[in-house]
Design brief:
The strands form three sheets. The chain has a four-stranded antiparallel β-sheet with strand order 1-6-7-5. Strands 2-3-4-8 form a four-stranded antiparallel β-sheet, covered by helices on one side. The chain contains six helices and ten strands, in the order αβαβββββββααααββ. It has two domains: 4-131, N-terminal domain of MutM-like DNA repair proteins, CATH 3.20.190; 144-267, Helicase, Ruva Protein, domain 3 (Orthogonal Bundle), CATH 1.10.8. The chain is an alpha+beta fold and 273 residues long. It has helices at residues 4-17, 39-43, 144-151, 158-163, 173-182, 196-215; strands spanning 23-28, 50-56, 59-64, 69-73, 79-83, 93-99, 104-108, 115-119, 256-260, 263-267. The chain is globular and about 55 Å long. It binds a DNA duplex (16 and 16 nucleotides) through residues 1-3, 6, 32-34, 58, 73-77, 92, 109-115, 131, 154-156, 160, 163, 165, 172-175, 219, 221-224, 241, 261-264.
Length: 273
DNA sequence: CAAGATTCCTGGTGGC
DNA sequence: TGCCACCAGGAATCTT
């Protein structure tokens, strides 16, 4: 589910509800995520005021007045929603943040690939616990030159490269296939072999696809929903993802599927070289 | 150091 | 209908 546009959609929604609220209570029902849930640190958030909501790559950052930040990664199946006061938790609702207006911010994650941390960012707002992340794709730091220089002499498939969060952040399996189709580049192409022009096409298209997906509220395939339970509309815009055997929207050739780096890749053999 | 395989976990689906 | 193998949008960790 959640790639950059989905996380941004959630962040934008939470920005309308969380800042200015205080944490009134915390409930942890399952501690076993990708890393154990930091129960003590979470309980220490009680009575803290929330001052902002940010996103970095696919991480959601909820900033507290005292300088701490609650970091949430949705993994593959995580969702956050805002429940009305008194609403019962359901299966796989692992964490509740009760707010001072009674509403409950709920983290659900059936596959438990998600991540919850409480950290202290440095003065610039950077969080070392997030590791080495590439620049934000929608920022001015993500440029053709950046991409071109970083990819020289790399033999890995371009699809793997754009899904590697140390090189490009926010692009997951869906937007990788979609971006490559729009850039007319085969997912298997060695990234180091791409000339400057094709690098530029890809960088431009990644920005465009992510921005469009944000504008339409993200992609709902099976388990992405907005904070209010709504579905994202970008699923209608998908041109290759999940369309194996169906005609290419541009040339009519059947879309092909293959496995690269253990993940499925979708492409048009005619349009993508 | 790069690139590929493996692993965490549960739920939905498609085939028989 | 029931059972089961297989697949899933992520990313850290290990091996080669």
């Amino acid at each position: 589910m959640p790639e950059l546009p989905e996380v941004e959609t959630v962040a934008a929604a939470l920005r309308c509800h969380l800042p200015g609220r205080r944490v009134a209570g915390v409930a942890v029902r399952c501690e076993k995520l990708r890393r154990p849930m930091p129960v003590k640190a979470l309980q220490n958030l009680v009575n803290e005021a929330i001052c902002g909501v940010r996103r970095r790559a696919k991480y959601l950052l909820i900033d507290m007045n005292d300088g701490q930040t609650l970091v949430i990664h949705l993994g593959m199946s995580g969702t956050l929603r805002l429940d009305a006061a008194g609403e019962n938790a359901e299966r796989h609702d692992h964490l509740d943040l009760e707010l001072d207006n009674g509403k409950i911010l709920r983290f659900r994650d059936p596959r438990k690939f998600g991540l919850v941390m409480v950290v202290k960012p440095n003065e610039q707002g950077e969080i070392k616990e997030l590791g080495e992340l590439a620049p934000e794709p929608l920022s001015g730091d993500f440029t053709t030159d950046y991409f071109y220089d970083l990819s020289r002499k790399r033999t890995t498939a371009v699809k793997n490269f754009i899904m590697d969060q140390r090189r490009v952040v926010g692009v997951g399996n869906i937007y990788a296939s979609e971006s490559l189709f729009r850039a007319r580049i085969r997912p298997t192409t060695a990234v180091g072999k791409l000339g400057k022009e094709r690098c530029q096409r890809l960088v431009t298209v990644i920005k465009k696809v992510l921005a469009e997906a944000i504008a339409t509220g993200g992609t709902t395939i099976s388990d992405f929903y907005g904070v209010d339970g709504s579905e994202g509309a970008f699923a209608r815009e998908l041109q290759v993802y999940g369309r194996t055997g169906k005609p290419c929207v541009k040339c009519g050739q059947p879309i092909k599927k293959l496995t690269i780096g253990g993940r499925s890749a979708f492409y048009c053999p005619q349009c993508q070289k």
